[in-house]
Predict the 3D structure of the following.
Amino acid sequence: MDIRLPKLGEGSDTGTVVTVMVKEGDPVRKDQPLIEIESEKAVATIPSPEAGTVQKLHVQPGQTITVGQLILSLSGGASAEARTSAPTVEAPAVTAAPAATVPAPTARPVVDVSGVSLEAIPDSVAMPAAPPSVRFMAAQLGLDLRRISSLTGRQRVGVDDLRHYVETLQKLAAKADQPSVPPADTKPVAESIDFSQWGPVLKKPLTQLRKVIGRRMTENWQAIPHVTQFDEVDMTTILHLRKKHLAAYEKKGVKLTVTPFIIKAVVSTLQRHLLFNSSLDEAAGEIILKEYFHLGLAVDTEAGLYVPVLRDADRKDMLTLSEEVATLAAKARDRKLGAEDMKGGTFSISNQGAFGGAHFTPIVNRPEVAILGLGRSADRAAVRDGKVVVRPLMPIALSYDHRVIDGGAAARFTVDLVQAFEQFDESLVKL
């Protein structure tokens, strides 16, 4: 029985083999995992549809395969019925539509202006014959009958020749006014440069995940008019509360980090500014305001950036948030996230505080309309009650879709968010 790669999901036809979980000669049972494959930033397990023995492996880790490609062959235990029902992928038949049902494209009128010369007519060229009425109209319009004669090739110019010449000039002017702009989807042709001509180089192939990240970031950046609002947060209260309640959480087997505080502050601000928890439906011409709060949390891994979604953040206490954040981060680093783990987000958070750095401009993750970027908290001078004091200040950056959100709304959101951080309610932390 030949086992082939089944369809991975809507719009996903290729994937990269992460792990091969069996080897040739191994017995396998029905539904036993055979390989792990990564596609569209999600890792899926492909189970065996039948029991049997692995006769031959046709894939290896790191290999990119497509839907319908052979994964492995089983021997023994596979029935003829199972053999015929193995997943296969067939190219859809293409049937030509009857010629009568396909409307012919409307041809654009061809403007022949090749015969129109803008050069001066020498005085030696004789004036063509024309009726007095034509001569009068030509004089009123400032037209040279000799130029009309050279265009028509006739030595006598009539009213029709005059009309044709005027129409030709109009078409020529309209053509000249059309801007020469390349199509919107035109992009420069990729060029491979031999950098080794200037010194030693190392080459690292792009992974499937890196290609997906690059494609999505490009699409998001091109489709959304980005604006980024900057500010900073005094983290004194949150750091004090974390230190105060750290031991109580550790007794529950949970590490209390700053992330649950951030989530609580963001959710409370989103509830007051629902526009930032929305999506733009361009097809329907509507803004969809969501009354659920599923936050995407950017996780940095060796393989690349993953954004798992923490669902119903508004309904969970700090202990539950701490547990789920740790679980999602671990799944991301172990590349165990499924496609559903990264769908349905309403607002995203990218926290670079653990790595350092200050302000940056995060890219909005469509179909969301906003994303919050957080930098590293550091002790800096701040003015409080007219006095200069040292406070732990954290830079924040709010990028938003300017088609949906105006600058005033973004400023008000940021002010309320800073207040939610700096006036964090201790009752939310107590167990």
Observations:
- The mean pLDDT is 84.
- The first strand starts at residue 2 and ends at 4.
- The chain has nine helices and 19 strands.
